[in-house]
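Usage

Read records sequentially. Each one opens with the input sequence:
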Amino acid sequence: MSQAAKAPQPAPFTLSPLTPLIGAEITGIDLVKPLDTAALSALRQALLDWKVIFFRDQDITTDQHLAFARLFGELEVHPFAPHKQGYPEVLAITHDRDRPGRENKWHSDVTWRECPSLGSVLRAIEVPEVGGDTLFADMYAAYDGLTEEVKEKIDGAVAIHDFAHFRAAMRARGKSEAEIEEMNRKYPMVEHPVVRTHPETGRKGIYVNVAFTQHIVGLEKAESDALLKHLYAQAAIPEYQCRFRWQKNSIAFWDNRSSQHYAASDYWPATRRMERVTIIGDRPR
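and closes with the structure output:
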C-alpha cells in the first residue's frame, strides 16, 4: 500500500460523545505537556466534528491555558469584561452571593465584532457543589431542522449585531456619554449573515443570537422580531443540545461558529469562578 493510500492514524486520545450531534469528552491527553502535530490536528478535527470538546482534571496554569488556546489562533482582549490581573486576554468570570450569574441566554461569543470569535476555552477554577452547568446547542442541526419556507427567507439575509447590553452596563456604572461614544466608534454595529457558512467545514448554521442580534436588515420590525424569535428558539430544542457538568479543572473548548451556549444560573448564592480565553475568528460569510 502506498503512503498516500494509508488509513489515517488514530487520534492520540480517547473521544467519548455526550450526544449523537454535539459534545465530546476527551481523555488520555495532558494539556500541561506540549502537543505534537498529530495531537493538535486531531483535536482541531474533534472540535470541528463535535462543536464543543471537554477535558477533565487539567490542573494547568494561566500561562498554559493561554498557550493551549494560542495553538488555534490569535487571542482577543475583551474591551468590556473584567480581566485577570496581569493577563488581559483572560476573562475573569466570577459569580457569587453578591454577583449572581447572568450568562443565561443562548449566544455565540462577541458576534458584535467585525471578526467574531473562532472559539472559546473556558476553565473551571471553583464550581458549586451542584448547578452551574453549561448547555451547548448545535446550530448546524438548528438550521437543518428549519422548514424550507423559513430557509428561503433567511438564506442570503443579514442581521445587525451590537454590544447593546454592554453599553447599558457602562451607563449603569456611570460612564460618560463621551466614553460610551468612543466605544461606539471603536466597535460600530456590524452586519453578519443570518445563516453562516462555516469556513472550515462548509456547513450552514444559524448565526443570530438573543444576546447581540438587533434586527434583520430589510424587514419591518414586527416581521424581523417574529423571525428572530423563531430562530432563537431553535437553540432550546433538547435534541440539538448537550449539557456539561463542571468540576474543578474541567475545560470546555467550543466553536463559536457552529454552536451557541447557555450558562445555567441556578446555583445562587454559591460561587462559580471561571476563566475564559477567546480565539479571534474571521469575518462571517
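Summary fields computed downstream for this record:
- Residues 1-7 have pLDDT under 50 and may be disordered.
- The chain has two domains: 15-138+244-280, 139-235.
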